[in-house]
Write a structure and sequence with these properties.
Length: about 200
């Protein structure tokens, strides 16, 4: 078990992914400074209900899902407007066993880190998903993240497509919580087929 700071957001973050964030709340500015100083990271978790920004000190913290991804800061830049731009890289999944807040309203969690998924090869009959991912990776917003992707590995293909293909957050969270990379790839493939079958407006 380990205690880590938590960053609830209205998104699902996967290991191996990269997430650009604009930091402006004092509690998170302090958190980032501490992470950089200690060379540690924080957990990104999906918000179930509520807002990720506290409007005032009386605002309730959001309710959150209990599986998230631990990320480390790989780049940061202080902006003239006082905001801090950071780039976070997903490392490993975790399950929250308990969570609470500090005096500054930063959420902390006692978490159990999950084992890294088995390095399973992408099946031959799903190589088209690898080609689709390569095409998506060429988009400007994606290419500038400098993601490292093994296009032959089921976990890499499944997780990157889960991030890039538009789908409901509940579905993305289910994909994150899956432990079998082949099952995740199957679910992503079905989603893509469903999208492709929808009539174009």
């Amino acid at each position: 078990m380990a205690e880590i700071p938590l960053f609830p957001l209205p998104l699902v973050f996967f290991p191996g992914g990269r997430l650009p964030l604009q930091i402006f709340e004092t509690r998170y500015l302090d958190m980032v400074k501490q992470c950089v100083k200690d060379k540690t990271g924080f957990g990104v978790v999906l918000i179930d209900e509520g807002d990720h920004v506290l409007r005032d000190q009386e605002s309730q913290l959001p309710t959150i899902r209990h599986t998230g991804t631990y990320g480390t800061i790989v780049d940061f830049d202080q902006r003239d407007n006082g905001m801090l731009s950071i780039l976070v890289e997903g490392q490993v999944k975790f399950v929250i066993r308990d969570h609470y807040e500090q005096a500054d309203r930063l959420m902390l969690g006692d978490v159990e880190f999950l084992a890294t998924e088995e390095a399973v090869a992408l099946p031959d009959h799903q190589q088209h998903l690898s080609e689709l991912l390569k095409a998506l990776m060429e988009h400007d917003n994606v290419s500038q993240l400098n993601l490292q992707v093994d296009y032959e590995r089921a976990t890499d293909v499944g997780c990157r497509l889960a991030e890039l293909v538009r789908s409901p957050l509940d579905f993305q969270q289910r994909l994150l919580e899956m432990k079998d990379p082949l099952r995740r790839v199957d679910a992503v493939e079905k989603l893509i087929q469903k999208i492709q079958e929808q009539p174009r407006e």
